[in-house]
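Q: Here's a chain of 488 amino acids. Please give me its 3D structure as tokens.
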Amino acid sequence: MADPRGFMKFARQSPKRRPVELRLLDWNEVYLPFGEDQLTSQAARCMDCGIPFCHQGCPLGNLIPEWNDLVYREDFEAASDRLHATNNFPDFTGRLCPAPCETACVLGINDDPVLIKQIEFEISEKAFELGLLRPILPDTRTSKKVSIVGSGPAGLACAQQLTRAGHDVTVYERADRVGGLLRYGIPEFKMEKRYLERRLDQMKGEGTKFVTSCEIGVDLDSNLLRSQSDALILAGGSCEARELAVPGRELSGVYQAMEFLPLANKVCEGDLSDHPMSANGKKVVILGGGDTGADCLGTVHRQGCVSVVQLEIMPRPPDVRDPSTPWPTWPLIYRVSSAHEEGGERLFSVNTQAFISDARGKVKAIHLHQVKSTLDEIGRFSFARVDDSDFELEADLVLLALGFTGAEKSQMTQQLDLEFDPRGNILRNASWMTNKDGVFVCGDMGRGQSLVVWAIAEGRSCAASVDRFLTGQTDLPSPIEFNSLAIR
């Protein structure tokens, strides 16, 4: 390393966020610029640890110590080359990934870990600023036609890899714009869509084609598309929202998060003048304490809600790493996102019993009770109702952010006669192929609900398998070793 004592000289210094009262006035990203002096000193904290466990924490196998050293030396061109060698879209992961690499950082054993995610983000931004990220054209064309269904991070990563390998790639998206959850799930304040557009411009310049407003199985027969393609890749995500089967679920004012969030993005895109489910002037309750719940939280703040409460059935996590999740595993700790910083109340160990209606059939309150959780010997939680703990919360708008249960059983999957695994994901073998010859699956559609970094890793790995299927060999990297551990 350029400065083997850097971790002793410099403390971790995270980027600062814009003041809450200002950022709630707009939909712009929340972070202030990070100075180059700060960046190089943070890169210097990457120690000569011998075995970089950050590699284990990153599904993409990012070469983190290498590009940290290059950033310290202010060689941003070389740093960008090393970063993009393993990650198609570090500008996405640098904004959206929860950074499992940092929780695996060796320095994190007894100190604050290296600021890996921010350094990754800054390398990508610097590369765009310097004009380094131009389209990469293949040396030869194969004349093989590849169709990809779904334009989220897995589909985009798979498409870019296969286009660069010389194949003729077309990506089909049923929405009116490309991007999947990057477009219509991630709020603008977490990633402004202009950053998605610049990557799409790069991909278009490389030769990837995009077809929007086209639902495979409805607008275009699935088997016809398969017959017209040398390979068909499904990357449609895990879109079956988890339901809550309690009385009053049908009431007006109770919505799934993914009914609510896309419309907020459409307002930001200028497609809608007003959000039809807007939280403006309303008392909001969000069920679910994960990232989707936090996305809803930041959104209702900006829409002008009167109050907001976020509910979680799990107990409040500890403030420091719990012994049950030791280094270098992902730690069970209490986390505060930018949206939580902006206000609202968080309640833990509560369960929803019913939604209560007003005279017009609209939700007016939620009937809840507290629960006590227990953990069995294999790590499964169970919940018991606490006697005499019932209470009600007023609510004009309820958003269900309870996660997803698997891939849609759509007309496309029915036409292709695809098999599903017990977890609701499309079944695939070690070559990423489904039970239908020449039809592959990657991302959440085959893995289940997961992180953006896993989606990109799956897209890259699937691309390598498809390239081998089409040509008999491949030079494309495959970051995921497909086994029971990798697909769990």
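Q: Can you summarize the key feature?
A: The chain has three domains: 6-129, 145-239+405-471, 254-400.
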